[in-house]
Amino acid sequence: MSTLTDMPRRRHPSAALLVPALLAAAGLVALLLYRVIAPEPGTMWRSGTKIHDLKRLRTGNKVALEGIVTFADPLEHRFYFQDDTGAMRVQRHVDEPIPRPGTRVFVTGKLRDEFVPTIGINSIELTELKVTNAGVAKLPVAQRRAIRSLFFDASLGEFVRVETEGIVIAAWPQGDRLRLELSEGGFRIPVTILDASELVPATLLDQR
């Protein structure tokens, strides 16, 4: 009687070809991923580029940023997005969609106007913009600040989410939005409330 060890062993050519085939497939997938993910030459890729880095770049540098939309203004056709180093405003054309607040976005483009310290982050302008939605994310925590500190606190980045309070000294409608002016300690700031058609401006005056 033949035992299992005495039986002749059969070779399986298909099994021998399986490993090289899998390796070839893995190489193809890696190549495809590289072609999809790899940035263009001269681009600072999103994994290492932060909004704060834009202050040291030069005209013509290509950048790729990632952040969360904190405010969208369909009337002005622009939005603001923020990462862990700062925030910036992105102006869109009238035929381009505006991402909603709470959307994680990838923003790529080329630096057209460099950072000017006397103007601030608003001096930076990107051209050849491409905005890609990457799902929903939690809004960054708003920093609580007194109105006075919004003018003098150098540690507070421009366009970042803040929470403040003051007395409403002026209120007027503008379409479906409401414009307010808040005052505290002799300092004033403008505030815009979107989708505020149901609010009555007169009831907000002199309120905190």
What does this structure look like?
- The chain is mostly beta strands.
- It folds into two domains: 43-136, Bacterial OB-fold (OB fold (Dihydrolipoamide Acetyltransferase, E2P)), CATH 2.40.50; 143-203, no CATH class.
- It contains two helices and eleven strands; from the N terminus they run αβββββββαββββ.
- The chain has helices spanning 13-37, 149-152; strands at 43-44, 62-73, 78-82, 87-91, 103-113, 125-136, 143-144, 162-163, 167-174, 177-184, 187-193.
- Strands 1, 2, 3, 4, 5 and 6 form a six-stranded mixed beta sheet that branches. Strands 9-10-11 form a three-stranded antiparallel beta sheet, with no helix packed on it.
Shape: globular
If you average the pLDDT, what whole number results?
A: 79
State the end-to-end CA separation. 98 Å
Assembly of the depicted chains: single chain
Overall number of structural domains:
2
CATH superfamily of the largest domain: Bacterial OB-fold
Counting H and I runs of at least 4 residues, what is the number of helices? 2
Rg over CA atoms? 27 Å
CATH architecture of the largest domain: Beta Barrel
| CATH topology annotation of the largest domain | OB fold (Dihydrolipoamide Acetyltransferase, E2P)
Can you write the helix and strand succession as a string?
A: HEEEEEEEHEEEE
Low-confidence stretches: 1-40, 42-47
Percentage of β-strand residues: 35-45%
Q: What's a concise summary of this model?
A:
With 208 residues, this protein is mostly beta strands.
Main attributes of the structure:
mainly beta; OB fold (Dihydrolipoamide Acetyltransferase, E2P); 2 domains; six-stranded mixed sheet; 2 helices; 11 strands; 14% helix
